[in-house]
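Lecture notes, unit on protein representations.

Consider one protein chain, 88 amino acids long.
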Amino acid sequence: MSPFYGEIRLFAFNFAPGNGEEPLWQLCDGTLLQIESNQALFSLLGTTYGGDGQTTFGVPDLRAANPLASSNFGAYYIALQGIFPERS
């Protein structure tokens, strides 16, 4: 099952799952992404988590929210690809 764009999941490993060519997930560490390469995700997040809104936008920084942090394992990731959620 494909994730929704912007869906956040906790994975119990320290790498972003991908398909070998393009990343499917981005670590939720406050990274700034290029709008041009991630237009669907930008349309959902806007500049809520940073960026200038012209060329960049940010993903949430959830490193401190990790329940596995004490074991130095696992991390939250946000989906960069998937199904665009319908709005009602």
